[in-house]
User: Fold these one by one.
Assistant:
Number 1:
Amino acid sequence: MKQINVKPKANSYTIYIGSKINIVNIIQKINRELSLGNKAILITNFTLRHLHRDALNKLAVLRPEVIALPDSERIKSFRYCMKLIKVISKFDYKNKIFLIGWGGGVIGDLTGFTAAIYRRGISYIQVPTTLLAQVDASIGGKTAVDIEKGKNLVGTFWQPRSVIIDTTFLNTLPVHQIKEGLSEVLKYALISQKSLLRYLETNHAKVFAKSTKTMEKIVYECARIKAGIVTKDEKEDLGIRTILNFGHTFAHAIEAASSYKISHGKAVALGIIAALRLSELETGLNPEITKRIQALMEKLKLPLRLKRDRKFWKRVEKHMRFDKKFIHNTTRFVLLEALEKPVIKEKISISAIRRSLEFIKP
Amino acid sequence: MKQINVKPKANSYTIYIGSKINIVNIIQKINRELSLGNKAILITNFTLRHLHRDALNKLAVLRPEVIALPDSERIKSFRYCMKLIKVISKFDYKNKIFLIGWGGGVIGDLTGFTAAIYRRGISYIQVPTTLLAQVDASIGGKTAVDIEKGKNLVGTFWQPRSVIIDTTFLNTLPVHQIKEGLSEVLKYALISQKSLLRYLETNHAKVFAKSTKTMEKIVYECARIKAGIVTKDEKEDLGIRTILNFGHTFAHAIEAASSYKISHGKAVALGIIAALRLSELETGLNPEITKRIQALMEKLKLPLRLKRDRKFWKRVEKHMRFDKKFIHNTTRFVLLEALEKPVIKEKISISAIRRSLEFIKP
């Protein structure tokens, strides 16, 4: 088992990464050290309660209350959070409660946000079970829920007391969910670690075979990159954390334009290609890098192009102008000057954005 | 106009205190310095929108959206916050919005909590209009809303970017609302400033005459005390901020036992007497101090005793065992050793608590 320390100003915590790790032991150890509470409330979904019943049974010694929610994106909502708080407040009599979010990004975000606002903040632990949550969502304390008006519009920064990652959970993950995470893995490689790019180029087959060693290596490297960035800029106000949005300005617009029919992972893959193309135009990035990434993305079974009508692309453009990340009339993009060299550029022209979008049309 | 700086770790800000102060000028100045946003959303209630129409009209230059809510405690709820967020998100297109909470504690708490969770935190300014909000609730960044299960169970720490206090707003405040604030004023005097106690003993008549000079002096001294404490212990995790709970453990139990029919201010007055009595028993506080405070409280028209049946007092006891402030089976009390000498005591016996409660029965 490997450990990574995340040290934001407010609270430092440890990420534990391994396969078939003893989760109970780790939680008990953390609880001894940090006095999280005497009553664990584990939040998961129906699918995972079934799939992970052996792992969950091992937690019996903690006597957790297990709350299983529908396996649906819609539980990541303000309304559902209110319901969840009603339930957890029942266990709060004579007890000090803490939460465990056992699941993917949806469960993690809902659990984190609930922990952030209940009694002005209680402790929570993340046990991410998808590749996307293991490499990205579970680390960094960004919590959020959706409202009708938009995604992630309600949230806080609230750090977990620990993130416990068992990569064997990925064994039951369907291929499309592995791919959801791979776009983010690719992003980390581009902004921060060339060697991870080479590793993916060599080991892509092992990824889909879910080789334990390969998955552990990939998750560890990504978690380490994210932890480093979050440590330097916990609340995204120093411009350092912003580089994690590489490819995401395009991605968010593509997701929104599709009314969220196109998944985040697919949108990020397309967004990365568009951002590489925009980098060629704006920073003079070597086009060979774009070609190299396109070749790797094919091997990783990620989409390079998107077939949609003219109206769709108009919507993408419109959303890009009002993305949460570059709201208020400055179009701020994370671009690459070279591998491992992200830069933030403002005032990108709409024509450059259009030329980049052309690049991901068939 | 006087200024007080609050300097918690996360964000420092200024409290402006005066009578007939130029609120627009101050907001514009803060906005220039801190870039709060280009769209102000002012949250108030129907009563204040009418009572303060002149002051509010002067804000026209800011082109704020004014949202007036019912003048009721029930708007301080998770449900209402959700509604409010729906409304404010409408103004968030192409704009950077910030909130102004114009009202008493209910408006201030709802505004602060909404600002805390919208887009992971936006700026807000407090314009407290009651004595209680001016001396206490508006300062310190404790935000909260109620859920069915209990008061203030959902909330965060989120500091305002400024607190603007115009003591002339107190002129339209009914006497019972002045008294609501006086209990807290008395608390500050006891835990931190003997001279304020003497000031109240000499000037109590001027308080009820709402003398501008007197109100400004009292609000300024209390705000200064609270600002000092909050600066040292923003999130109540260092035990310093805890002293602000003097009298409040009893008070919360009395409020809850009455199903919130007894107001916070009255409950705090009674709680202070009980806490002084408990201090006599536990720390050897000189009983002359209790007598002196009782005499002052009569002059301030605050209740010294409460007539209720046996069942009521049983409920008070029960609530005290599970108060949010001393949950998890340690009964933690703020007591006084002497004037200006608060101490935190744990493991107070139930018999001492009962003897203290006897003291506020007729």
Note: Confidence is low (pLDDT under 50) at residues 324-328 of chain A.
Number 2:
Amino acid sequence: MEVKKSLGLAVIGCGTVGGAVISQVLNQKAYLTERTGLNLQLLAVVQRSGSTTAARKGIDPKLITENLDEVLQNPAVDIVVELIGGTTTARDSILKSLAAGKHVVTANKALLAQHGAELFAAARKAGKALSFEASCAGGIPIVQTLLSGLAANRIEALYGIVNGTCNYILTEMIRKGTSYAEALAEAQAAGLAEADPTLDVSGGDSAHKLAILSALAFGKKIKFDDIPVQGINNLEVMDVNFGRELGFVIKLLAVAQRKENTLSLRVRPAFIWEDHPLAWISGPFNAVSVYGSAVGHTMYYGRGAGGSPTASAVLADIIATGLGCSQAWFDNLSLWPDVTEPAVQLPVEEIESRYYLRLMLEDKPGILGRVAEILGEYNISISSALQKELPPDRVDKEGVPFVITTHLAREGNVTQAMKKIESLPAVLEPGVIINIIDEHAEAF
Amino acid sequence: MEVKKSLGLAVIGCGTVGGAVISQVLNQKAYLTERTGLNLQLLAVVQRSGSTTAARKGIDPKLITENLDEVLQNPAVDIVVELIGGTTTARDSILKSLAAGKHVVTANKALLAQHGAELFAAARKAGKALSFEASCAGGIPIVQTLLSGLAANRIEALYGIVNGTCNYILTEMIRKGTSYAEALAEAQAAGLAEADPTLDVSGGDSAHKLAILSALAFGKKIKFDDIPVQGINNLEVMDVNFGRELGFVIKLLAVAQRKENTLSLRVRPAFIWEDHPLAWISGPFNAVSVYGSAVGHTMYYGRGAGGSPTASAVLADIIATGLGCSQAWFDNLSLWPDVTEPAVQLPVEEIESRYYLRLMLEDKPGILGRVAEILGEYNISISSALQKELPPDRVDKEGVPFVITTHLAREGNVTQAMKKIESLPAVLEPGVIINIIDEHAEAF
């Protein structure tokens, strides 16, 4: 067991992920040295004033401090690992650490999605590496795969199930036919959803990850605020089931599609064919499908959250930094938002997709013809149409559900057509619009 | 588009993969430079005397040569890419190239599985890197994932569908109920099986990949000849279907399981539960499931063969070599068979698994009791037992098929018990033994 290099670590934050990182560094010390030649030395655990978390986790009190500045003055600290989350203190801590000549490893997706360019510029100025494998899809090494494993590919599209909370809720809705509210309550009981689940179920967390992964996949600066985002919180189980009957599975997808030089980015509950590998991803698991010009379809699957899987990704970054790979990637690849051109992101109205539309109609003659006519006015071509029965939980309601699937259409046209359809007196409720995504189907 | 480093390449072999690599280097030159900062320069294409392949592919005649020695004298050549396959000329070429101070990239699984230690020792002596992403699972970046993405994990087990020909044949047998012979003929017609498919269908090719992946996953030297290997060529569709009725899907699996310090390695047609992600892998696709101590279950999916996907992996190695990562991994990680301890590989008799046993019995009383008695003598505990009807294609035969699934048992006991059972007069044919693998099932 030869030590080839010692690496001093300071970890900021000692929550679920921070605790797991520290525990892996301490408990697997010999194994990590044997495997990597690196002697990882935990030199400090920084936490906010008054916190007792680190002490309660049994960390040596001599290592615990509230004073980041002091830690940064220690020349033995090579890498600062930021695991507090949020976009204020975390941002300051990372900027300070880089300025002090430390490499930084972070799991902070919100911060990178919104302030990536600033942080990478600071890293470049300092001549240090900023790594973030754990920011996307937990333990799945998707960042290193985009940086290195698929480096020779021009990425055509990327589809991610990158929020385990949402995937768990949707899996419950699909399998048990429970409502969104019931499935959410179950997820909370199982510890798979926060008490306030907004960031997850609204799609915001998925959008953070989509921004980070798209920047790497396409080598363009992504404007996070321009990504259209829709969550699963308004999804009705009726639609989940109607889609299922048509051969579709509902997933909250982070979608990035390249059409020549434009990118179509969005987070949406979307129907995918039941034989697409992403349709199989159940419960809290994550998966990312990447379509490369040379490699074709690849998919990466694993746990997208949790202390230990996320710590696996943080440690991978620490090791890659220790071996010099993070620096080599950062210095040479032109994928970093401080040096890349802004992406041409399609405005939401111009996104093209197939659509599932569901209406609640009064059961009277002529109305369907009128709906079809309006869709035609907006250049929306119908692929299939079927009238359904009211599901048991809706029999108190009036009307009949009517489902239409379309061929490729512009989203702007679809929302305008729906508005017009909703104004018909025979249309009893606002219509439902769900993306159908089957552009990269594989048959063999 | 800033060139940060020029990299001279010599490619040996211009077949399917060689041709695809050359085409990607030449046709994507600007894109690769833009993305990686590397200017990849194709300096020579080495092929055997008399071959016209390179010329027919339109490669500049000035680059084509039969003389490797001359190419190696060119100081501008940084990397030699070996893509001729086989274990004789390829071995010589790699040893020569390393001795001449060139980095080497290869896709040659047979060579690495059988002569890995020698080749890595030569690379170490030369201070150069030997990379081989394309040797396992085609375009899936599984080697880099084991080297880097999962570096902090102690790997518990690895299960691979790493031969697309076999997976295509099995998918046909499962979906259409065709016999092995018919499915093989279809695979050949579809260009997915060689005219002589022996290396694929016998499991030999999967064993090569298993040896390479296990060496990296567990950091031990693997004795290739000690890996028990069974192919799909004797598989009866009857058993595929009986297993299906029990909730199992048949796959040709490359299996590596760690139990403390021993490794249980084997290539086997095996039954896995239909809800395991590997059960979903259809047609010519490959996938590798890796269970890590920190990350839990991860899976990597993609095309395991074909010129363009394999070239994606070769290019990934070329880029990682150009950026210095290959060298950093090779110098620091203790996973290379020239420096690792030999693995303690369990002899085949000591492998523990669950088993599917199928007998053809005369339909007379008492015989089942006798079979159960013999299994008991060998400490084999029965999990389920069911008598089946003869399938339509076997109604000319006598007897009734009888299927037993066992709890965990030692393979030596199972084969001995089967031998004794086969000697009973009421047993009409040799019995069928198939592994059932469900050790790492995940439920949620």
Note: The two ends of chain A are 48 Å apart (CA to CA).
